[in-house]
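Reopening closed ticket. The problem is back. First fold of the pair:
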Amino acid sequence: MDSEKILSRLVQIGTVSDVDNGKRRARVILKETGHTSGWLCVLATPPFIPDYNVPQRTEFESGGSGDASFASHKHDLIIKPWMPKVNDQVLVLYLPVFNGDGFILGGI
């Protein structure tokens, strides 16, 4: 493959066709060619985001403006790292070698 073709496929846009949340990977239909990619790894989220489906708790110790409607309360919530969903548009980066692996950089 010549260098011009390699460079032209480095960064591509596509639509997610399949997702494997457990392995943090997805398959993408590439906009330019219409071909479906192999499994592409989704870049890891920043380390300050907890693991997938781990419960988190927020606590407010005092009310706002002294109003009784702002009494102390708690919220249970779950923070999930970003993963694309089927039909999401994503930006893909391929390594600049023949049949190089690719990675999903994020959503568009």
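Second fold of the pair, where the issue appears:
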Amino acid sequence: MTSPNPKVLLFSTQKQSFIEDDVRLLEEFSDVKWICAHGLFTAVRIKWSMLFSDVGIAWFASVYSAILVFTARFLRKTSIIIVGGADLITDSHLGYGLLLSPWKRPFIRYALRRATHVLPTSEYLRRAALEVGEYEGDNLSTVPPGLDSNFWQPGGQKENIVLTVAKCTTKDRIKIKGVDLLLQVAEKMSETSFQLIGVEENFLSKNSFFVPKNVVVSPSMSQQKLLSYYQRSAVYCQLSRVESFGIATAEAMLCGCIPVVTDVGGLSETIGDIGHTVPPENVGAASEAIHKALKEVNSSSGEKLRNRAAEKFTVEQRKESFKAMVFS
């Protein structure tokens, strides 16, 4: 590389807070061009931008990332794929996963096999990458998300509130994130307050989801506003049917919430041996686990959970991993 600050192309098809976090990390030691786009012309933009970049990074394995990897290899440059879940995990009943389109599989397999580095966020995704790529995975390195423990931290007195954060704009997404199950749990626990963030209440009613009186529904909000909800809530509940990591769960842990999660994907890996794991689609087990979690509010569990998340999901660790690969 000829410049003290390598030129990095970061590509994604969507804007998400966790991608923005990675952009900020990369900007600390490189010049970043972020292309967030989709459509036919996007392939041309990727190829053209790689001509003037030292490293190409794509969030999610896809047809676009295959184009990025191919171009980088042709130009003898470094390519990095960050896999996130929907690119590797498929559930036809929930309409979930890029691989529901069979024609995309060869492109995703190529991207995984030929990228210089592939970064799953969990061991669960690492195993999925091996399966989809059908290879030995020598280019795989598990790198968890980096969360700012100075920002995500406890504050004030905990209240008997059960919080769920799940950005849902489709009926399938409601099912994927287990919001329908959460509403059933809330109905059984009528004396407990529930807070659901990331969904429009009128969307739930239009799609015939019953919202009990003890559930407050709020749309997606800024991280600054979200922080106060994590700080007030005693329990964080994630009843997903599919979940590759669970960033919101980790954020909640940093804020001292006791997690109750389904035993799917990478969620149990995220919380470790602290907190509560329940079988998927088991409303009774989830209700019982939440009752137990609420009794642990004043115990040392919240502090242990924060310590685990603060040690395991550090910004510095993710930054150093990126740095080593960008400068390799």
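Update: turned out to be a display glitch only; the data is intact. Residues 159-312 form a domain with the Rossmann fold fold (CATH 3.40.50.2000). The first helix runs from residue 17 to 27. Please close again.
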